[in-house]
Design goal:
The chain is mainly α. Helix content is 80%, strand content 0%. Helix 5 runs parallel beside helix 7, helix 8 packs antiparallel against helix 9 and helix 14 packs antiparallel against helix 15. The longest helix is centred in the middle third of the chain and has 19 residues. The N terminus is likely disordered.
Length: 373
């Protein structure tokens, strides 16, 4: 009867864990662990599952050293009780790799991910979701280190597995195609990137529809590639297509829509179409202000960019008006001593100086923090 009580405690602990209620989950897992250890022993699979779940919670709470301590305990027990190639043992190895990655110990993370991958491939096959998930995380590590060739090598392995297991038009397969296109873009291999984005786009239009957010992100990224190639008219055409779809699917003020608006602004800026730049920045500002608030960093960045345009055109009064708005927003959101607030203040001082307004510049200068020695 007591075993049933421990099992229920463990089950309810897992429910709380999945819903992010970590404190309640930990209390139930601790009770279950004490019971399991007494009734079943420290190396029983049920005991070790509870140890593993507690390690997982520590990891999500960013208590990484504590998480590693408990994962190591689970790993030692599972290797002894289940064997080194058992899926539960390998999932422990995988999660330890995740912890090392979260600590930015990338070499250690790769070592443990590769150990998990070798085990999953042997025990479950190259096409199993656990194997493919491990490949994906290995790629993320290489990408974060700028090791794009390595990232592509592992993406190709993931793609082969997903095509075989899920089919060429499955959303998970297409996500890998999209990610490979993104890597090619980062490397400046624009023709290759377009080739793979076109493949992702065709698949996503077929599988998800033309207005699905994933389809529209592909359109957006193709526009970015055209812009990077200096094909500005083509870039604008594709950005307009992305905006039209995002406005319909997500709304005019959705952050994804506004990011695409911002990307169009960069194209107009590259062409020296400053009136267009200001027109679209004002649209982005209105959207960010409505969606995120006047004090949000995204809104304030847009204000800052508008100021730079007005300043470059010698429209100092207009630039000062927007700079003061940015300063007020940053002071409210971040405080007067925050580096971003201080940078805005410095910019405002320089703008007053450029406009020949020495007295105002000196007044603001007094509010700047002295540089630290």
């Amino acid at each position: 009867m007591r075993n049933w009580a421990y099992m229920l405690g463990s089950v309810f602990g897992s429910v709380f864990r999945r819903h992010g209620r970590y404190k309640q989950a930990m209390e139930l897992h601790e009770q279950a662990l004490a019971g399991y250890e007494k009734a079943l022993g420290v190396d029983h699979p049920a005991t070790l599952s509870t140890v593993y779940n507690m390690a997982w919670i520590f990891g999500r709470q960013r208590q990484y050293e504590k998480a590693l301590e408990w994962y190591e305990r689970a790993l030692a027990g599972r290797e002894k009780a289940l064997g080194i190639d058992h899926p539960d043992t390998l999932r422990t190895v995988y999660n330890m790799a995740w912890i090392f990655g979260s600590q930015r110990q990338y070499e250690k993370a790769l070592e443990w991910y590769e150990r998990a991958f070798a085990g999953f491939e042997k025990a479950l096959g190259i096409d199993h979701p656990d194997t493919l998930r491990t490949v994906h995380n290995i790629v993320l590590i290489f990408d974060s280190q700028g090791q794009y060739e390595k990232a592509l090598e592992w993406y190709e392995r993931a793609l082969a597995g997903k095509e075989k297991a899920l089919g060429v038009d499955h959303p998970d397969t297409l996500s890998t195609v999209y990610n490979m296109a993104w890597i090619f873009g980062r490397q400046g291999q624009y023709e290759k990137a377009l080739e793979w984005y076109e493949r992702a786009l065709a698949g996503r239009e077929k599988a998800l529809g033309i207005d699905h957010p994933d389809t529209l992100r592909t359109v957006n990224n193709m526009a970015w590639i055209f812009g990077s190639q200096g094909q500005y008219e083509k870039a604008l055409e594709w950005y307009e297509r992305a905006i039209a779809g995002k406005e319909k699917a997500l709304g005019i003020d959705h952050p994804d829509t506004l990011r695409t608006v911002h990307n169009m602004v960069l194209i107009f800026d590259s062409q020296g179409q400053y009136e267009k730049v200001l027109e679209w920045y004002e649209r982005a500002f209105a959207g960010f202000e409505k969606a995120l608030g006047i004090d949000h960093p995204g809104t304030l960045r847009t204000v800052n960019n508008m100021v730079l345009i007005f300043g470059s055109q010698g429209q100092y009064e207009k630039a000062l008006e927007w700079y003061q708005q940015a300063l007020a927003g940053r002071e409210k959101a971040l405080g007067v001593n925050h580096p971003d607030t201080q940078n805005t203040l410095r910019g405002l001082v320089k703008l007053h100086e450029s406009a020949g307004q020495t007295e105002q510049a000196q007044s603001l200068q007094a509010r700047l923090k002295s540089p630290r020695n």
